[in-house]
């Protein structure tokens, strides 16, 4: 099953896509950003934009989820060259896991050294509030426990090793930088850190599932990011990730709360400005070999 599931996402396919993109723009991005649900406004921060609809990019999947525009935007952020995915892919859209993570390998071949992954997530930690921004310090990969890992299948050493380490998946210096920048910007009250758990979705969690995830040590639950982080780390990209807590996971059978995508998008809009400021300030402080 594995060789077939990997077909169409080979090194050569990724290289062809990266070369196609590099031929269309002079921007050589060192930072890649992935916008989570409702967080597409992050791409609007870029100046001198060169944007591509996913449907026009060879080998690229299409965005099918409301709140994920489906555009790859190149541009500069305070002079720093960046590329931004305005919309990401999820397992529940029906794509093979290798396909949803393909952009990380294309980022690598574009020259990206650091990715900033963002997502909307349900809060499991009782100290979290809706609107909090959680710096991801680690993850629980539930689909991975069942064998659905983006690195399953033949390994191409040109990307990375067969058995990559994940105990350092989320760059600690970048987490500290986010904390420092957050403090400076006056975000201390809503800046948290924690463990993100990925599930397959698209159904939101049951009460019993939320209680179980809390016991396992998860602070937030979502449907993305982890697969991208694994593939990015495999090919040597530094990863920083954050979750916007858009709803509180329901853990009480008397609760009237019901998770829904509209609320997720709405909370994204409310925090958009602060998220943009946090990410853009971080980008200006990350050390890179900018061309
Ligand atoms: O792309 P992200 O992880 O931000 O999207 C989350 C998970 C689901 O796709 C959706 C649920 O509202 O938001
Ligand atoms: N799985 C999951 N994903 C989310 N994305 C935003 N909120 C949630 C949530 O409560 N659960």
Automatic annotation (TrEMBL):
Gene Ontology cellular component list: cytoplasm
Segments forming domain Nucleoside phosphorylase: 31-283
Binding site for a purine D-ribonucleoside: 205, 247
Pathway: Purine metabolism; purine nucleoside salvage
Keywords associated with the record: Glycosyltransferase, Purine salvage, Transferase
Residues holding phosphate: 37, 68, 88-90, 120, 224
InterPro entries per record: Nucleoside_phosphorylase_d, Nucleoside_phosphorylase_sf, Pur_Nuc_Pase_Ino/Guo-sp, Purine_phosphorylase
Matches recorded under Gene3D superfamilies: Nucleoside phosphorylase domain
GO molecular-function terms, A-Z: purine-nucleoside phosphorylase activity
SUPFAM superfamilies tied to this protein: Purine and uridine phosphorylases (SSF53167)
EC supergroup of this enzyme: transferase
UniProt xrefs under Pfam families: PNP_UDP_1 (PF01048)
GO biological process, one term: purine ribonucleoside salvage
Keyword Phosphoprotein: no
Family: Belongs to the PNP/MTAP phosphorylase family.
Job of this protein: Catalyzes the phosphorolytic breakdown of the N-glycosidic bond in the beta-(deoxy)ribonucleoside molecules, with the formation of the corresponding free purine bases and pentose-1-phosphate. Preferentially acts on 6-oxopurine nucleosides including inosine and guanosine. The purine nucleoside phosphorylases catalyze the phosphorolytic breakdown of the N-glycosidic bond in the beta-(deoxy)ribonucleoside molecules, with the formation of the corresponding free purine bases and pentose-1-phosphate.
Protein's name according to its UniProt entry: Purine nucleoside phosphorylase
């Amino acid at each position: 099953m594995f060789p077939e599931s990997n077909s169409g996402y080979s090194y050569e396919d990724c290289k062809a896509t990266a070369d196609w993109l590099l031929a269309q723009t002079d921007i050589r991005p060192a930072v890649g950003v992935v916008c989570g649900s409702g967080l597409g406004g992050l791409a609007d921060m870029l100046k001198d934009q060169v944007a591509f609809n996913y449907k026009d990019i060879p080998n690229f999947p299409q965005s099918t989820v409301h709140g994920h525009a489906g555009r790859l935007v190149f541009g500069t952020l305070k002079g720093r060259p960046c590329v931004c995915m305005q919309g990401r892919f999820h397992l529940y859209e029906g794509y093979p896991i290798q396909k949803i993570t393909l952009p990380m390998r294309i980022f690598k071949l574009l020259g990206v050294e650091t990715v900033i992954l963002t997502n909307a997530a349900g809060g499991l930690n009782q100290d979290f509030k809706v609107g909090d921004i959680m710096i991801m310090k680690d993850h629980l990969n539930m689909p991975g426990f069942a064998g659905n890992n983006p690195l399953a299948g033949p390994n191409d050493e040109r990307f990375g090793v067969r058995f990559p380490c994940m105990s350092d998946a989320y760059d600690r210096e970048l987490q500290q930088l986010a904390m420092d920048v957050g403090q400076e910007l006056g975000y201390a009250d809503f800046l948290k850190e924690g463990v993100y758990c990925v599930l397959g979705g698209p159904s939101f969690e049951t009460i019993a599932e939320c209680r179980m995830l809390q016991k396992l040590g998860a602070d937030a639950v979502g449907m993305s990011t982890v697969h991208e982080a694994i593939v990015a780390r495999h090919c040597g990209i530094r990863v920083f990730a954050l979750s916007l807590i858009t709803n509180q996971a329901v853990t009480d059978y008397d609760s009237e709360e019901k998770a829904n995508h509209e609320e997720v998008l709405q909370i994204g809009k409310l925090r958009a400005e602060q998220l943009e400021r946090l990410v853009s300030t971080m980008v200006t402080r990350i050390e890179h070999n900018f061309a």
